[in-house]
Amino acid sequence: MNARFLEIEITGRCLYKCRHCYGNFPKKGELGLEKVREIIGQAKGLFDCLIFSGGEPFLHPALPAMVQEAAHDFLVFITTSGYPISDEQLQQIKNKSILVFGMDGIGDTHDTYRCFPGAFENLVQTMDRSRDVPKEIIVTLWKGVIPEIDEIIKLGAQYNAIVHFNGLIPVGRAKNNPDILPEPEELEQLYRKLYQFKMAGGSVVTDLHKVTEKDTEAGIDLFCRGRFNITPLGDVRPCEFHTAVLGNIYTGSLQDIINRAHMLCIIKSREEGFKKDIRLDLKNPFDYHTTICHTLPCN
Ligand code: SF4
């Protein structure tokens, strides 16, 4: 069984405006410490790992307290843009969490993509100051990052970080920026390249998956099995890329919402890797998210 992840978007605040941002951050909403404590309590037994994200979670003053509480029962991840994190904050989350840094290119490529001059410098400085904290780098596979992949892998090795290459899902701001989406042929080449890196023993992971006939029998080995997401306004969704609202933690308990969600066609199908819903006529066989998952009934 996959580790079950609950991603909590604790704040809608963010300094950046990344071109692919699935949630169109910055936006309204923030979960207070007491609400997050309640969520942590209710998540026990339902989830194995908690991800604190945003927006930029380090802009939430109660993040260290949330991490300390969650670390008693969960493996904790914090996804961050590398916004200058203070040494005090680093000390508070050290030994209790894994930092997950978003990197979309080297130098100017990253800055332009994040619409923030100096964003890459911020990120590298923060990675440097957190050398003794376990860390990962997440790279969203947009068109402009493709020529810089080898350099990013080298940087990952330099900072002792696993590098995750994630497919770009055309939702949120990415939907309005179609020029950033790689062509299926480019994805095909990347898919092979990353596979070779992995086979050669590199610290590289990818969720890129090409839908083929064998998925109709075995199902897709989805990274999102068992995953759910909570927005800064308390909406519970299948994941951060899906807009279906399964309930709201201000009007129902997390346990009830998740237990009910497991009865829905979309979640049942997802837990089986969509094996009965696989279609082989996809224009882009790497995008099962919007072409299969998003078309399934949510009631
Ligand atoms: S397959 Fe569906 S639930 Fe899984 S990550 Fe994609 S959109 Fe989210």
Question: Short summary of the structure?
Answer:
With 299 residues, this protein is of the alpha/beta class. Helix content is 31%, strand content 15%. The protein has helices spanning 33-43, 63-70, 87-93, 108-114, 119-129, 149-158, 184-199, 215-218, 254-261, 265-271, 288-291; strands spanning 5-9, 49-53, 75-80, 98-102, 135-141, 162-167, 204-206, 228-230, 235-237, 247-248.
Tags for this model:
alpha/beta, globular, binds iron/sulfur cluster
Task: Give the topology.
Elements: E1 5-9, H1 33-43, E2 49-53, H2 63-70, E3 75-80, H3 87-93, E4 98-102, H4 108-114, H5 119-129, E5 135-141, H6 149-158, E6 162-167, H7 184-199, E7 204-206, H8 215-218, E8 228-230, E9 235-237, E10 247-248, H9 254-261, H10 265-271, H11 288-291
Parallel strand pairs: 1-2, 1-8, 2-3, 3-4, 4-5, 5-6, 6-7
Antiparallel strand pairs: 8-9, 9-10
Helix pairs in contact: 1-2
The structure holds iron/sulfur cluster.
Helix percentage: 25-40%
Q: Which structural class best describes the helix and strand composition? A: alpha/beta
**Largest sheet: spatial strand order:** 7-6-5-4-3-2-1-8-9-10
Radius of gyration: 19 Å
Counting DSSP H or I runs of 4 or more residues, the number of helices is 11
Describe the structure.
- The mean pLDDT is 95.
- The protein has 299 residues and is an alpha/beta fold.
- The radius of gyration is 19 Å and the shape is globular.
- A 10-stranded mixed β-sheet has the order 7-6-5-4-3-2-1-8-9-10, covered by helices on one side.
- It is 31% helix and 15% strand.
- Helix 1 packs parallel to helix 2.
- Strand 3, helix 3 (87-93) and strand 4 form a beta-alpha-beta unit.
- The protein is built from 11 helices and 10 strands.
- It starts with a strand and ends in an 8-residue tail after the last helix.
- The protein has helices spanning 33-43, 63-70, 87-93, 108-114, 119-129, 149-158, 184-199, 215-218, 254-261, 265-271, 288-291; strands spanning 5-9, 49-53, 75-80, 98-102, 135-141, 162-167, 204-206, 228-230, 235-237, 247-248.
- The structure holds iron/sulfur cluster.
- Iron/sulfur cluster binds at residues 222, 224, 238-239, 241-242, 270, 289, 293.
- Iron/sulfur cluster (SF4) binds at residues 222, 224, 238-239, 241-242, 270, 289, 293.
